[in-house]
Every structure is written in C-alpha cells, then in structure tokens.
Amino acid sequence: MSKNTAMKKLIPYIPKVVSYFFILLFCYAAISKALDFENFHVQIGQSPLLSAYAGFVSYFVIILELLIVVLLTIPKTNLLGLYASTSLMTAFTIYIYLILNYSDFVPCSCGGILEKLGWTEHLIFNILCIILGILVIVLQENLFLRPFKRTLFMLTFSNVLSASLIVSLFLSSEYIIKKENNFTRRFLLHPIVDEKVFDLGLNSYYFAGSESNKLFLGNLTTPLLCTIIDKSTGLTTELKFSLDKKDFDFKNLQLKIDQDHAFFYDGSIPIIYKATLRQTLARTISYQDAYFNQLSVIDSSNFGLRTQIRQSQEYELANLDLNRKNKILIKPDLLEKQIDGVFDVDGQLIKNSYNNSFAYVYTYRNQFLIMDSTFEPYKKGKTIDTTRVAKLNISKLSDGRHKITSPAIRTNRATAFHRNILFVESALRGKGESLTAWNNSYVIDLYRSDKNEYTGSFYIPKRKGEPMRQIIADDNYLFILSDNYLIRYKFTEQIKKIYRSGEAENL
User: Fold this and answer.
1) For residues 64 and 101, is the Cβ–Cβ distance under 8 A?
2) How far apart are CA 233 and CA 71, in angstroms?
3) Closest CA to 414 of 361, 374, 465, 458
4) Going by C-beta distance under 8 Å and a sequence separation of 6 or more, which residues neighbour residue 136?
5) Which of 389, 505, 387, 410 is nearest to 467 (CA)?
C-alpha cells in the first residue's frame, strides 16, 4: 500500500479524532464548572471583563459547552459542532488577549482541565485548538465537495461574530462596572502585602496625620500627647503639648498634624489651637468663630468644617478662613438632604494626604463628593453598592435633636484619600461574594477621584474579629487601626500603577 493510499484512508478519521478531542474538552469543562458552580460563578464575578454579566455568563457558558458536545456527538450536526467549537475557542482566546493587554489587573487563571496553566499558556493552547478546528473544518467541507470560498466565508463570519461578542461584552461591562456598577466587585490581585503589626496596648489611639516617613497618632485618653511612629522602622517617640487656654470643659479634644503644625480642637467648644512640632505650646488661633463636629486642615489658618445650622439643626460643610473678614463661609449646596439633613447626610470629611483636595463620603448611601481646598468646584461620585437613598427611620425630638429609631443600614465605613485613589471600607457584601470571606475580612473598595470611577477591591483579614476604626494611606503603605493594633500593609505595583496614571493625567 502506497503512502498516498494510506493517507487517503486516514483522512476521514481525522475529523472524528478532533471531534472526540473537543467532546472530551467541553464535556469535562462543563461538568467541572457545574459541580463547582458557586466557585465558577464567583470567578466570573471577579473577572475584570465580564463582572457585570456574571449571572448570565456563568449559566450560558455551561449550557453552550454541553450543547456543543451534543452537536459533535450527532453525525448530522458534527460539522456545525466543529464550527461552534472553533468559534467558542476564538471567543475564549479574545477574552484572554483582552485580559492580558487591556485589563487593569490580571486575575488568577482558573478552571477545569487547564487550571494549572497560566494566562499565556491558555492563550497558546486556545490558538492551537482554533488552528486544529479550522483545518478539520476545511478538510470536512472538502470531503463534502463544498467550495472553499463558502467555507472561508463561514469560518470568517462565525469567528468574527464570536470575537465581536466578547469585545462588546468587555466594553459594556467596563462601563457598567466603572460607571453604573450593579454591585459586583472586581478584586485586585495581591495589591497589598501584610507586613507588620504594632501592639499599641490601648484601643484609644487615632490617626492624627501623616508626613513623609512619619505617622502621627493622637490618644483620646491623653489628648495632649502625640505619638510619632517611623513608618519604616516602627520606632516611636512622643511629644507632650500644652494649651495656652485650658479653662474649658472639653468633651472630645482631638489633634490634627499638618505640615509640621499641630492643631487641637473640640467642635463642641468653638476653639482651635495651633502649635508646631518644635514649639509645643498650642496657642489659640480661633475662638467663637464656629461650632463644628468635623475639621480638616487646609493650611495654618484655613480649615474645612462640617457644622450644624442652629435654626434647622442640619449638617452643612463650611470653610473657616481666619484671614478673611467674614471668617466662616457656609456651603449650603454641597450636602444633599434626603430625609432630615442630619443622619441622611452623615459622613466623613477627609483631606487628601497628597494635596489640598477633599472628599466627603456619605455613611448611609452610595455617594461621595470630591472637592478642592475651597470646596469648589466639586463633583459627585458613587460607591458601587445600590443604596442610593439612605435607609433610615428618624424621629425629631422636641428640643430639635434627631434620633434614629431603628437599626440603620450603613454603606461606607473607614475612609482614606491619597493622590488619585479614594479607599473606602464597605459595610455591604456584593454579588457573588463568599459569605465566609466576608465575615472574616474587611473589604476595601478603590475609586479614581480623577476619573470618578470604581477601580477594584481587596480583602484585609480581620484581626480577632474586631472592627476597623480608621485607615490612612501614603505612596507606599496602608495603615489600619483595629482594636489595640496598628497594622502596616505595603502596596504592590498594582496600587502604585494607579497612582502613577493619575499623576500623568493631572500633568
């Protein structure tokens, strides 16, 4: 028997062998996904390209893979199954290409028979499958004596259609996740490294400020004492301040450090003191100018405040400039009232630790404001949960005070702001997230202040189940206060890349 004759007899079996290969591949892939569907659904939900369609895609992929197996098994539909197999592998290939080249981060490679392969190896494997599928289709169509132009058109049409579908899903998912999120989180891949834990001995410490390589802590039990921690070594020193006027019944005297200045204040008493890190006598710089319940430092004589209007008892943001004739300037249009103007607008006023911009993050709804040092102009942003209106039951007492009469649903907790990233600890679990992971972790959501969009999230393990009290960030570290502990996490290239992108856009 000649080689040509043997080859001719072998050719009809090639499509069968390739068909069996695709049957095994898709059958195993579909069954493995179905048996571990919860995990597969979560993985799709964390996909940087398909997060917004996790519910639909997770079911659709399994059904499609099983349908292709049926088509390949039946002789009359085998050729259609080969076209579908090649198109699906093209879709997977385009998906991986987008992950590697256009995603903000590359998630873990996972799934089925190839779970040990990385993304690049997946890409190579898929391309080989596409080539194999195309060759077999051409061979099969040739056996049926069909024109090559018709085969080429069918291959081009089916593969371009599947590729276009993936690109369309990517573009629309990107918009939904970043601009109109349906509360599907996108988890970054190892954005922080757990580095060091400091036992402070007390749970009364709070962040007073951050400068270059120093972290400043205040203490509610000893309000005139400042603890300075070297961010790199963890070595601590202490500064003891004194006040030039002490004849006040302070309820909550607090400390802020900014640009080598130390400011003491208690908003229930309209007074602000200023000292330096070298001259520890804090002198009065503002008295009877304004009552307030939150303060952020703009410069040595200029402050951002959250105050309460006497007549309405509603919260408003304000600017206190000690060099201006009318020192206090209320910004009545910033905080948007929904129910009572108190609890519904409650939130945190925080300064960007890199520049003089500010953020106000609402506690009970999915909104925040980004403002400059004058609180103008400002822009609104949304956190990714769906709590657009604060869910509160509130009663107004006869003395004008407001009181929550039933448990309130919080959306945002601890917050930090550095460069172009707003770090927000969320109080709500997103779609497809593991309940176990949620119960044992804090979740931090990241938002781009320069683009006004959601960037991603990451988990931080809870220490002894205690809540996170505060967070603060700089170029290299994320610091957390929880119970008696100060925990330092180091940022990886994931976060630094976002910092750099914001800097480039600002330039």
Assistant:
1) no
2) 64
3) 361
4) 14, 15, 18, 19, 82
5) 410
**pLDDT tens-digit readout, 146-195:** 888 888 999 999 999 998 988 887 777 666 555 555 678 888 888 999 87
Select from 365, 358, 362, 334 the least CA-distant residue to 346.
362
293-313 b/e with 16+ CB inside 10 Å = b?
ebbbbbebbbbbbbbeeeeeb
Q: What angle do CA 473, 474, 480 make, to 5 degrees?
A: 30
Q: Which of 250-259, 310-319, 381-390, 430-439 has the least mean pLDDT?
A: 430-439
Residue 281 banded pLDDT, cuts 50, 70, 90: very high
Q: Domain residue spans in the chain?
A: 3-178, 192-506
CA distance 164 to 151: 20
Q: What is the mean pLDDT of the chain?
A: 85
Tens-place pLDDT, residues 112-126: 445 566 778 888 888
Token look-up 């197996």 returns 69
Query: 3-state secondary structure string, 343-402?
Result: CCCCEEEEECCCCCCEEEEECCCCEEEEECCCCCCEEEEECCCCCCCCCCCEEECCCCCE
Q: What is this structure's pTM?
A: 0.70
- Whole-angstrom distance, CA of residue 294 vs CA of residue 116: 52
Residues 87 and 70 sit within 8 Å (Cβ to Cβ)? no
Can you tell me which residue has the tokens 């550095």?
A: 418
Which among 106, 81, 84 is positioned nearest to 95, based on CA atoms? Answer: 106
The closest of 138, 91, 96, 94 to 117, measured between CA atoms, is: 96
Q: pLDDT exceeding 70 applies to what percent of the chain? A: 85
Fill in the DSSP letter of residue 466: P
Structure-derived torsion over alpha carbons of residues 37, 41, 43, 49, reported in degrees to the nearest 10: 140
Tell me whether strands 281-287 and 242-243 are parallel, antiparallel or unpaired. parallel
CATH fold of 192-506 reads Neuraminidase (2.120.10)
Alpha-carbon distance of 372 to 166, in angstroms, equals: 40
For residue 57, count other CB atoms closer than 10 A to its CB. 19
